[in-house]
Hints:
By secondary structure, the chain is mainly β. The protein has strands at residues 2-6, 9-12, 17-24, 29-38, 45-50, 56-58, 66-71, 76-81, 90-100, 103-108, 112-117. The strands form two sheets. Strands 2, 4, 5, 6, 9, 10 and 11 form a seven-stranded mixed beta sheet that branches. A four-stranded antiparallel beta sheet has the order 1-3-8-7, with no helix packed on it.
Amino acid sequence: VQLQAYGGGLVQTGGSLRLSCVVSGGIFTINDMGWYRQAPGKQRELVAEIMSGGSINYADSVKGRFTISRDNAKNTVYLQMNSLKPEDTAVYYCNAQYYSDHVDYNLWGQGTQVTVSS
């Protein structure tokens, strides 16, 4: 099973980007999914998470600007990022907690760079 993230890039302040992350490669049940980010010299932090039951949590710094969603039929989680700021610049990682063959797993994607220019 693997996570593949798409959609990073360079954007100006105030612009938008949409990140996607697809889980593939096995027989599994996905529980919680989320996006984290890590800026240079900083620890990885939670950006947004969406639980299997649909509840959502956002970091205070992105509330009102970012929207997380998921398509269970496609095993995909999205992060719509609007009104981007330079401080949103980071490598963004998707995360999926899934269940397969009676075992729980916590899986990370490879990361995608988001750069917001001032």
